[in-house]
Amino acid sequence: MAAKPKLGQNFLRDSAAIQRIVHALGDISESTVVEIGPGKGAITDLLAPKVKALVAIEVDRELAWNIQERFLPEKGFPAVTVTRQDILQFDFSALSQTAEKKLVVVGNLPYYITSPILLHLAAHSAAIDRAVLMVQREVADRVTAAPGTREYGLLTVTLQLYGRTESLFTLPPEAFNPPPEVHSTVFRWTFAPRFEELGLDQSKDEKPFITLLKQCFAQKRKTLSNNLRAAGVPSPGIAAALEAAAIPAQARAETLSLQQFAALWKTLPSK
Fold first, then answer.
1. Is-contact 176 239, C-beta < 8 A?
2. Segments making up each domain of the chain, as ranges
3. Full-model pTM
4. Is the dihedral of CA 156, 193, 250, 220 positive or negative?
5. Which of the four pLDDT bands, split at 50, 70 and 90, describes residue 22?
6. DSSP string, 116-162
7. Whether the Cβ atoms of residue 90 and residue 83 lie closer than 8 Å to each other
8. Which residues of 214-223 are buried (b: 16+ CB within 10 A; e: fewer)?
9. Are 54 and 80 in contact (CB under 8 A)?
10. What is the spatial distance between Cα 37 and Cα 108, in angstroms, rounded to a whole number?
């Protein structure tokens, strides 16, 4: 009897979907590609002949060993390297420096650590050109959401601060083995940090600006004023900042664009 897959191991078996994922990466003939969680190698099979270099990151010991055995240099895969490591510990920036160019990332992300992985990629945004990622449909709805929608939140603005996100296609549970209890969506993230566009200095404003975003979304049902007040910003300063940024006094975070958050950041009395 086959061993029951571990948490998060829902292996994609839809060959047409696999081809669409690889196609969505664009031209990767001169790219160093990082595959997150290759699992049984379904996507790896298509990537390996197409890339300049492929680094497959797999934390599961048995899966990593099987992938490594399948893609040995002597079997015709000199471009493939398998690394057994927690993806949250993987240094994309160091690999980009070694490759002397930005990376392309692809993967079927484990549901239980999807957000940490996305934020880890954001932290290495300067090292990544683009990513095509499969996540739970609800997560994809959040990362591609527009202001004013129910799905729009902290994860949305954080990811969109580092580039453009676009939903590509959705797959039913039957596309996986074993079938999960949710639908999955593939989305593309084209990295292009927007700090300069927003009038921010990334070197000094990045961390405090993200802290502001966290404060604004701390209690989604509350207004910006209440959330900022709870974060310790004096009421008179909040009112003046909102007025200067042309933001309604009773606005909630989910209604603001990144441009409006940047305007608020510039008008707040202390940062």
1. no
2. 11-191, 202-267
3. 0.93
4. positive
5. very high
6. HHHHHHHHTGGGEEEEEEEEEHHHHHHHT--TTSTT-SHHHHHHHHT
7. yes
8. ebbbeeeebb
9. yes
10. 7
Judge whether 255 and 246 are in contact, CB under 8 Å: no
pLDDT tens, 88-128?
999 999 999 999 999 999 999 998 999 999 999 999 999 99
Beta-sheet pairing, 11-12 with 184-191: unpaired
The rounded distance, in Å, linking the Cα atoms of 261 and 266 is: 9
Q: Find out whether the peptide bond into 179 is cis, omega within 30 degrees of 0.
A: no
Domains 11-191 and 202-267 share a fold: no
Identity of residue 2: A
Q: What is the CATH number of domain 202-267?
A: 1.10.8.100
* Token pair 């927007």: residue: 194
| 11-191 belongs to CATH 3.30.750.80 | no
> In 3D, which of 183, 185, 202 has the Cα closest to residue 193?
202
For 45-102, what is each residue's pLDDT tens digit?
999 999 999 999 999 999 999 999 999 999 999 999 999 999 999 999 999 999 999 9
